[in-house]
Amino acid sequence: MRIYGTKLEAEDIRADMATSVNGLTVPDTAPTMPGELTATGGYAAPGTVDGDIRLTWNASVDDKPGVVYRIYRATFLTFVPRAAYIIATVTTSGYTDSLRSLAPYYYYVDAVDSTGQASPMSRQAMGAVRPPRPVPAAAYGMEEGSGNVVHDSSGNLNSGQARNTAWTAGKHGNALFFNGTSSSVDVPPSYSLQAVRAVTFEAWVNPASYGRPDNKEVVISSAGNTLWSSMTAVWDNVPEASVRSGQLGSVRGPRLPLNTWSHLAFTFGEDGHRLYINGVLVHHNGLHAGEYLSGSYSPLRIGALDISSPRDHFHGLIDDVRVYTTALLPDQIAEDMSQPVI
Ligand SMILES: [Ca+2]
Ligand SMILES: [Ca+2]
């Protein structure tokens, strides 16, 4: 402790901090433990099992600049971090571990200061590369802006024919306006659209009205009597989705606002039906786990029901339609929401 009869300047205080009262140098302190270590696996590249795992942690605090971090990695949970496991030394609190595979990896991080003192070891984090992201069976950005062909950008050649629609500004770029009485986009059946065990429908919708009370305002429908979905404004004007003409029940959400863009996503898979609005799960019906769709050919219709004579027409704008024959996970739906179909 020091007591002065004068006011010290900052440099004097720092000088006092660095020396003890008896003139000895104050020992350097070790860095604090790197906090909140997380390891987040990215997707493997298509056709591979290789991807990146991103590590982040909270920076250590030390009394001097020049702290570096040592990253330890192993493939088994019980490993004890030591020098042989160090894969990298970095100066910032983040690291991308590239070209990992699908098996889990286990990590620790510690900090070393300019005098060689090490912090306590971080807590362990586990991360794994995710299997390649599902690719759509069909994806429509509706960017054409003229003509009647609506191109599929999935690579599966499932282009559609627009009937009685109008091009207009959309959620992202252009979109199609559906008049509520005769508009639809019709996509012929194809092998790539066969939904056998699972399906996902996604679209941005901007309803202009809820239509007649008996109108289902269909956004996407597919597979005739096998896969059926009406995604906005069923009998009481709320979004609803189902498969097999509703034989396995349905999922419903709160009414969508008119003249406003909302993102709708419907998934059906081994654990049932899920309906998401703006990326938020609003209804999960898991009662029919283990039941699957039939493998029949699957015509696809946007903006109307997929029967030979279209009905239950949607009124308003539709943009960025995606169809998968897998059930997307919630974070994958959020990714699609944030990215236009290109
Ligand atoms: Ca230090
Ligand atoms: Ca668009």
Q: Which regions contain 5 or more consecutive residues with pLDDT less than 50?
A: none
Q: Major β-sheet, in short?
A: 8 strands, antiparallel
Helix content: under 10%
* SS content category: mainly beta
How many helices? 2
Q: Strand tally, please?
A: 22
Q: Rg to the nearest angstrom?
A: 29 Å
Bound chemical compounds: calcium ion
Short description:
With 342 residues, this protein is mainly beta.
Task: Provide an overview of this structure.
The structure is a single chain. The protein is mainly beta and 342 residues long. It is 5% helix and 35% strand. β18 and β19 form a beta hairpin. The longest helix is centred in the first third of the chain and has 9 residues, at 10-18. The protein is elongated, with a radius of gyration of 29 Å. The model has no long low-confidence stretch (mean pLDDT 88). One calcium ion (CA) binds at residues 141-143, 170, 172-175, 319-320.
Task: Name the features.
5% helix; mainly beta; 342 residues; 2 helices; binds calcium ion
SSE diagram, text form:
Blueprint: H1 10-18, E1 35-41, E2 51-58, E3 68-74, E4 86-90, E5 94-100, E6 105-112, E7 125-127, E8 138-140, E9 149-150, E10 160-163, E11 165-169, E12 174-179, E13 184-187, E14 199-207, E15 220-222, E16 240-242, E17 250-252, E18 262-269, E19 272-277, E20 280-285, E21 300-302, E22 315-324, H2 330-338
Antiparallel strand pairs: 1-2, 2-5, 3-4, 3-6, 6-7, 8-22, 9-10, 10-13, 11-12, 12-22, 13-21, 14-18, 14-22, 15-21, 16-17, 18-19, 19-20
This protein binds calcium ion (2 copies).
Protein name: LamG-like jellyroll fold domain-containing protein
Domain LamG-like jellyroll fold: 197-331
Pfam families: Laminin_G_3
